[in-house]
Structure formats: C-alpha cells, structure tokens
Amino acid sequence: MPLIWTPLMNQEDGFRSYPGDYGKQRRPSLVIPVKNGNYHVKVALGDKEREGRTSIKAGAGSIMLQQIRTKAGEITEREFIVRVEQQELRLAFLGDVPQVQSLQIKPIHCPTIFLAGDSTVCDQCSGHYPYTGWGQALPLFLTAGAVSNHAKSGRSSKSFIQEGRLERLESLLGKGDLLLIQFGHNDQKNDERGTAPFADYLTYLAEYVATANNKGATPVLMTPVHRRAFTESRWLEDTHGDYVRAVVGLSQMLGVACIDLAEKSKQLFEALGPEGTKPLFMWTDPNEYPQYPEGTEDNTHFHVKGAIEIARLVYEGITEQEGLRQTFGQANKTLKEEQR
C-alpha cells in the first residue's frame, strides 16, 4: 500500500487535496485503489512501549478520529466509515504522536449523508489549512453512516444548481440516504449568485428537496450558521435575517425536517462571547501557519476547532429528528470525553 507525499493544493476540487496535508506537521497519505462506495475501517491504535496521540483523516481532510490518547502498553480499537468517489481510499495518520498497530478495510452498504452548501460546509483545500468546513468534521460524530461532502466555496442555492452540482448529487443519491442543505451566505450577495429570500431562494431550495425525495432520500433543510458578528451589547447580530425565516417557513410548508443551525450556533457563540469565539473562527497570529504569515481575522469561516463544534451541533440536529435518530444516532460513545 503506497504512502505518498503530495503538494499543497489551492484548487477547490477536493480530489486534488490529500489528507496528510491537513496539519501543522504534514505526513504522507496512504492511498489504496478501490471501487467507489462506502468502506468500513477498523484501526488498532497504541504501542507496547510508547504513549500515543493519534488523529486520522481521510479523503480531502475529513476528520475521522481526533487526538485519540493511548498509554504505553495500551491498544484500543476504533471504527469509522469512509466514502470513496474518486476510486481511491485515502488515509493519513496525524496527531502529536501517531501510533497505529493495524488496519482492516472492507466495503460496506450503509446510508450516506450528502452535503450541499457553501464554504462554511465544504472540504477546504489543503493549501488553506486550518480553514475547515463543518462537513469535514461531521464524520467524527458518526459510526453508522458515511459523509459525502459536495459543498463548495462561494456557492449560493442558485449557482450550485447552475453549475450542475445538484445534478451530480442526483446521480449519487439513493434510498435511505440523507441530503443536508445549507445555503444563505452567498444568496445575500449583490451579484449573479444572489437570490431573494421569499422568492427564488425558496424555489431553488425546493428543487433540492424534490431531488432528494425523487431518489428515495431524506432532505433536511438547514438555516445558515451564524457569523461571528457581535453587537456592543455582547449579543449576535442577525446577518442572515429573512433567509433564516424563509428556510423555516419552507420546511413547514413542505413538511420536511429542518435543523435550525442559526439558532444553535447563536446559542453557542453567545455563551462563549466575543473572545471565546475567536478560537472557533479563522483568527490566527502572524506566522502561526506558514501560508498566513500576516495572520488572519475571519469572522465567517471556521478553524478546525470551530468546524468540530459546528459539526457537533449538526449531528445533534440530526438525532433530534424522529425519523433519523435510529439510523444516524449511534455516535461515538467516547467522543465527548476525547474532544473536550
């Protein structure tokens, strides 16, 4: 099984970025030629003589395991499911002190969670690390399904469809799958991507819902995640306004599930406050990351830490849906302790 080193990529196409490049310390990626589909991975972590702290990423930086601690002499097993759509199963063993004893991989038939959205959701390219979409962190919370992230930076509900991306999703969706739909950030733009919240925004979102329903999949509408936009009174400013209300109203009209990520993220951000939310967003110091020598102050896009916390909210929203809890509600039992 070949281990390969790859250059950092700044193109948005996820298949050009390899998981070993998503970290301060880059490592080679394990690349295994396979047929497209879902694969169950069982890994034994630890070492007889040394402590370990192991993270595993797959595909284009999807977080499968995050800093799993093992004591010297301890061996522990973990399982996860990887989605393959480019005929390569890609894994990278990262973390402070990665310790991997064995690896078992086999095909599996299971539901897939497909994601349609923008830069807050997408698989960010390796050259932009530690920028991370919450879709890259969602696999961390799942043991009963795969994640296929089709979100792309800069897309609105309109431009995603115009570029043929929903058509691509339609070719992949199947019975029992899930389609999470989160747009709004770019629908607000005053350019060709823009939509009106109670007009064509609803029309486009309804097209996603119909596409999922026609393939026997379950559509889930999502209100857009909040920006880090605090008022002087320490409360968040509602920067999405009618787009949030439009999503909630459409879900009620069509009778489909809705995850109110705007409200969930609002509660989280206001509890943490202006300073406490900085580590969740792309606020970095000069030279903290070589690709950002001047540092960054981005109040829209997430750092790895923030992507994990938003993915936690999304997973919570999935398990709150009565019809989805049984299928996708099997979270990693040790995740809460390992991530806090």
TrEMBL record:
UniProt GO molecular function: hydrolase activity
Organism taxonomic ancestry: Bacteria, Bacillati, Bacillota, Bacilli, Bacillales
Alphabetically ordered keywords of this record: Hydrolase
Family: Belongs to the 'GDSL' lipolytic enzyme family.
Domain SGNH hydrolase-type esterase: residue ranges: 117-287
Name of the protein in question: SGNH hydrolase-type esterase domain-containing protein
Provenance organism: Halalkalibacterium halodurans
Keyword Hydrolase assigned: yes
Highest taxon listed in the record's lineage: Bacteria
One Pfam family from the record: Lipase_GDSL_2
